[in-house]
Write a structure and sequence with these properties.
The protein has about 120 residues and is an alpha+beta fold. It has three helices and six strands. The chain has a six-stranded antiparallel β-sheet with strand order 1-6-5-4-3-2, covered by helices on one side. A hairpin with a 4-residue loop joins strand 2 and strand 3.
Length: about 120
């Protein structure tokens, strides 16, 4: 299992980024794909045409999102934590993704960089 941590700068206020990450209609606007999402802990979510699925664990409005991502029947949960920090150029997004299966690590990190946060950044430009 591997972990990934990175900061991204998004040119929008933290509350706008939070909404874009938790509102299914907003998610569809920046991903181009239908999404199932709720800001209720314990709810299931699905992004990018069901290529990302999991369970929402914790929300602090405009500040923090914690999710469990599913990778088959792995023993330890893969946890994604997104923390939003105000920044001079919008929002600094602190991403921590733990317990990524070794076989999925390259695809996951490429997805975070070249799909997820690149699309979100372009949406707000």
């Amino acid at each position: 299992m591997k972990a990934f941590k990175k900061y991204y700068i998004i040119p929008a206020l933290p509350e706008e980024v939070y909404n874009a990450l938790t509102n299914p209609l907003a998610i569809r606007l920046w991903t181009g794909e239908p999404a199932t999402m709720s800001a209720e802990p314990g709810s299931a979510f699905s992004l990018w045409g069901d290529s990302i699925e999991g369970k929402n664990l914790e929300f602090i409005p405009d500040k923090k999102i914690v999710q469990q991502w599913y990778f088959g029947d792995q023993e330890e949960a893969s946890i994604v934590t997104i923390i939003l920090h105000p920044h001079a150029h919008g929002t600094s997004v602190e991403l921590k993704h733990s317990n990524i299966p070794d076989s999925e690590f390259d695809d996951i990190t490429e997805g975070w960089n070249n799909m997820y946060f690149k699309s979100l950044h372009e949406f707000f430009e």
